[in-house]
Specification:
The protein is mainly α. The protein has two domains: 1-49, Arc Repressor Mutant, subunit A (Orthogonal Bundle); 52-191, Tetracycline Repressor, domain 2 (Orthogonal Bundle), CATH 1.10.357. It is 78% helix and 0% strand. Helix 5 runs parallel beside helix 8 (148-168) and helix 5 packs antiparallel against helix 9. The chain is elongated. Pfam families: TetR_C_13 (PF16925), TetR_N (PF00440).
């Protein structure tokens, strides 16, 4: 029973952090704000997290898990049909960019707030970006491209751009533009000897 209560308190702290960090920024949100939102105490907070940076790392890891699940599901659902998987990914990205409160990619945002590449926050960001690139490599694997890594890097660049454009531009046009751009990268990679 106690472990369930502790687990649920950790989840409440992470839910509060997710809401506040994404909406207001990592540096702008104090531990006290997270504690207040979660309805707990500092003592309880520090039982679960040694520092605010530990909470930020946990927040980013939870966001990464959600993204990875969605991307893996799209690739699996595509069943080797790269275009089908890209359509799912583009539709999801477009829907996310049109959702109320969309502020772009939480990992790009975190990198902007934590410039030191050796910080634990940036290490989580770097690991997630490596994961994304490997996911794009898995996506294009059925095409037997001459340089799947280069194609994956190009797709990663597009993914970064769509997350920024969704926040700064017209989110209603994001899905179609992302899909067209990804298809163009893949066509170009298929033509490259």
């Amino acid at each position: 029973m106690i472990s369930t209560v502790q687990g649920s308190m950790r989840e409440r702290l992470l839910e509060a952090a997710n809401e506040l960090f994404y909406a207001q920024g990592l540096r702008a949100v104090s531990v006290d704000k997270v504690i207040d939102r979660a309805g707990t105490t500092k003592v309880t907070f520090y039982r679960h997290f040694q520092s605010k940076d530990d909470l930020i790392v946990a927040y980013l890891e939870s966001r990464a898990e959600v993204e990875r699940h969605g991307v893996d599901a799209a690739i699996t659902h595509g069943g080797g049909d790269v275009d089908a998987a890209l359509r799912i990914m583009a539709e999801h990205t477009g829907a996310a960019a049109c959702a109320p409160g969309f502020r772009g990619c939480p990992f790009i945002n975190a990198a902007a707030e934590y410039p030191d590449p050796g910080s634990p926050v940036r290490e989580v960001v770097a690991a997630h970006r490596r994961w994304w690139t490997s996911a794009f490599e898995r996506l294009v694997a059925p095409l037997d491209l001459a340089d799947p890594t280069a194609a994956a890097e190009d797709l990663m660049l597009l993914r970064d751009g769509v997350m920024v454009a969704g926040y700064l531009g017209d989110p209603a046009r994001i899905a179609a533009s992302f899909l067209r751009s990804c298809q163009a990268v893949i066509r170009s990679a298929a033509l490259t000897p």
